[in-house]
Design a protein that fits this description.
Oligomer: single chain
Strand order of the largest sheet: 1-9-8-7-6-5-4-3-2
Radius of gyration: 24 Å
Strand content: over 45%
Order of helices and strands: HEEEEEEEEE
Largest sheet: 9 strands, antiparallel
Organism: Sphagnum jensenii
Keywords: Apoplast, Secreted, Signal
Shape: globular
Mean pLDDT: 76
Protein name: Dirigent protein
Number of domains: 2
Main location: secreted
CATH superfamily of the largest domain: Allene oxide cyclase-like
Number of strands: 9
Subcellular location: Secreted, Extracellular space, Apoplast
């Protein structure tokens, strides 16, 4: 009988320890998030573009040819108005794969006035065609500077889009919301 009681006591102790460990690991993995929202005006294949075709066949984005690489350098602003308060830069490269999607590798540089610490978010993912107005979700894989160790996801939303001609020339106003935390 004593052996049976000892076994039950040991089993209860082990289950209790497991429950405590599991509750601790669950709370250790939960974290608070916050949103970082910004806008930019992206122009491709128009005068004074913010995106340039730097490699690939022919430079015709309307066909999403395999091998086309576009490099972008956009000022990010507080609102959709291009004259609103500048917050930093959105620098990226888009690699087209010949399908209706393309790969995005982006760095969002947040510029804190007077601060020399580079504060960035690194974003990776795949987006649908340049002409899509659907929301897109990408991974925020890392933060640096004041955002060190933060990660999460980004939602890109096309606020407005103007297409010109047949060569893929366009101007897009994008709203990006990053949901990030540690």
């Amino acid at each position: 009988m004593a052996a049976k009681t000892l076994m039950m006591t040991t089993l209860v102790a082990v289950v209790s320890i497991l429950l405590i460990c599991m509750s601790g690991s669950v709370s250790a993995h939960t974290h608070k998030t916050h949103n970082v929202t910004f806008f930019f005006q992206e122009s491709i294949l128009v005068p004074n573009p913010t995106g340039l075709v730097v490699a690939g066949p022919g430079g015709d984005l309307s066909k999403l040819q395999q091998g086309v690489i576009v490099v972008v350098d956009n000022v990010i602003t507080q609102t959709a108005d291009p004259n609103s308060k500048p917050l930093g830069k959105f620098q990226a490269q888009y690699v087209l794969d010949g399908s209706i999607k393309y790969r995005v590798q982006a760095t969002v540089i947040i510029d804190f006035p007077g601060d020399l610490v580079e504060t960035t978010y690194e974003i990776l993912g795949q987006r649908t065609s340049f002409n899509s107005t659907d929301d897109r979700t990408l991974a925020v894989v890392a933060g640096t500077g004041f955002f060190f160790g933060q990660h999460g996801y980004a939602v890109a939303h096309t606020v407005s889009q103007k297409l010109f001609g047949t060569n893929g020339a366009q101007i897009n106003v994008q709203k990006w919301t990053l949901v990030v935390g540690k």
